Amino acid sequence: MDIHPTAIIAPSAKIGSDVEIGPYAVIENDTEIGDRCEIRSHAVIKRFTTLGPSNIVYEGAVLGGEPQDLSFVECTSQLRVGANNRIREGVTIHRGSQPGSETVVGSSCFLMANSHIAHNCRLGDRVIIANNVALAGYVDIEDQVFISAGAGAHQFTRIGRLAMIGGHAKIVQDCLPFVITDGAPGRARGLNIVGLRRAGLRTNEIGILKEAYRLLLRSGLPLEEALSGLERIGDPHVAHLIQFVRNSKRGFCHDKGQSKGKVEK
């Protein structure tokens, strides 16, 4: 363990093995820092925050701050961070706003400088969030999403697996998995072909998703008829797309500016 003498470590903080803590870092009570983490200078780990192993928290980041929520009353809530994340300079992540609630960051994520993750957000694994992205409360992001610089997401929106969000996009409804969403307000712009290839999808799998995109967004079919067509494809990635649409409460971004409503129950 390598702790700089100017760092401030509260008595009840739990510090794992082989942890490095830099100059003027602050680690409050009721925190847990996993093995092999590196907390760099002037970073602040606030109470009720848990970091898994092998995270790097860069200079000036603040993790576990109180929610920016006018209704927030001081309570025990959590920020839980997985393993192998890189959390760059000036990143802010807030804990949950209700008693017992939590904000969750998965593993192997890359959160670039000055991005903000608000209370009760949930990030999956291998999520990349570029500089100055702002996520409002309760945003739900699935695995392997890429959000470009300056984008903003409205509270309670969802971003599906392997989606890409364009720079400075304004996200006010759900963003479909496997799809590029861009603009203000956000519109579906086509499949995230580069991301799908990097994730290891084969040419035939991408071809199936192209057909699913056409049926859902360009066929002109009513939503339920489009979903029925998708079900007949019988592909696991398409099944994930169908479930994502059926779970939507805010509707999702269409490719011509209109937004599809939620599925009638």
Descriptive overview:
The chain is of the alpha/beta class. It has 2 domains: 2-138, UDP N-Acetylglucosamine Acyltransferase, domain 1 (3 Solenoid); 196-257, Up-down Bundle (Udp N-acetylglucosamine O-acyltransferase, Domain 2). The protein contains 4 helices and 30 strands. The strands form 4 sheets. Strands 1-4-7-10-13-16-19-22-25-27-28 form an 11-stranded mixed β-sheet. Helix 2 (203-218) runs antiparallel to helix 3 (223-233). The longest helix is centred in the C-terminal third of the chain and has 16 residues, at 203-218. It is elongated and about 65 Å long.
For the terminal residues, how far apart are their CA atoms? 55 Å
- Stretches with pLDDT under 50, minimum 5 residues: none
Which term fits the overall shape? elongated
The tally of domains stands at 2
By helix and strand content, what is the structural category?
alpha/beta
CATH architecture title of the largest domain = 3 Solenoid
Mean pLDDT: 96
Q: Tell me the number of strands.
A: 30
CATH first level of the largest domain: which class? Mainly Beta
- What is the share of helical residues? 10-25%
Write the CATH homologous superfamily of the largest domain.
Hexapeptide repeat proteins
For the sheet with most strands, the description reads:
11 strands, mixed
- Strand line-up of the largest beta sheet: 1-4-7-10-13-16-19-22-25-27-28
